[in-house]
Structures are given as structure tokens and as C-alpha cells.
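Homework help board

Subject: predicted structure for assignment chain

Our instructor gave us this sequence and asked us to write out the predicted structure in C-alpha cell form, then describe one feature. I got the C-alpha cells but I'm not sure how to describe them. Can anyone check?
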Amino acid sequence: MPKTKVLAKGKATAAARDRSIALRVNGRIVEVRTPPHRTLLEALRDAGFVEVKRGCEKGDCGACAVLVDGIAVDACLTMAWTAEGREIVTAAGLGSREAMHPLQRAFVERGAIQCGYCTPGLIVAAQSLLAKTPDPSEDDIRHGLSGNLCRCTGYAKVFEAIRDAASEMRGARRRR
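My C-alpha cell output:
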């Protein structure tokens, strides 16, 4: 059999395995058609969620971190179909320009953003940390961000921003 027919057949077979899944992202349902091997990173970016950054694609840098049911996961290591029916939140889903999340505001105010590429992943990791540890120590923050790499900031301002946001979030919890 000629090679071109085998390739064409293989593509048809792969397309037949694609399936539609419904992802709940930032509070809305997004329908995506995906093959079984597509990562959540690829599915989210294809659906327009460009704040989920493509970094190392092997789980080392954290640039693609998203919250899945409140826990930070590397979207590059998560198959898209495993996130169906779960709550996915990106850094952009935490707040908006008009109503910034305390972490987003603190990162801006503290100058914790340099080039900005790693920022969404850092904010997602910090949110996951603060949900479990509302008053984190320096070691807690270091551990909470251990899966995130930044080549620009040196992390000092990132740590300050997380401490500021944690303080603001604790105050908001007390007022409820």
C-alpha cells in the first residue's frame, strides 16, 4: 500500500477519535473538540484563553498553571478530557481590570511583574496556596511557588505581593 494512503487513513482514524467535551472555564461552559492526547494547555489556548502560557511543556516552569477545582495544576501535563465537569479557573478568571483580585492588584502595586510571562502561573499558584494557608510563612510561599520559574523578578517582590494579598484576603474573610 502506498505511504500516502496509510497517512490519509491514519488521519481519518485520528479524526474519528476526536470528541467534544464541555469545559467549565472561568464560570462559563466552553465546548471543544479534541483528540484524546490533547493537553488542557492546548485546549484552553485553542479556545482563546491565552493567559495560560506555553512554557516548557513538561511541567517544570508553571507558566501554564490553572486551578482545577481550586488546586493549581500544570495544564501542559493534564489531558483535556480529564478536566471535563470540573471547575477550571485561569489567572484572568480570578478578577477583571475593573474588579481585580487581591493577588492581581498586589502584583501590580508591588511591581512583581517584569516581562509578565510567568505572572499568570505565579498568581494561580499563589491563589492555590492562600486557599489552603491564609497566613503563609516565607517557607510556605517558597514551597507554594516551587513549581514556578521566573527569570526576571528575583522573587522578592512576588513574595511581598503574596504577603500583601494574603493580608487583604484575611481582612475580607473577617468582615464577612
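Reply (TA_rk): Your C-alpha cells look well-formed. For the description, you could write something like this. The first strand starts at residue 19 and ends at 25. That's the kind of observation they're looking for.
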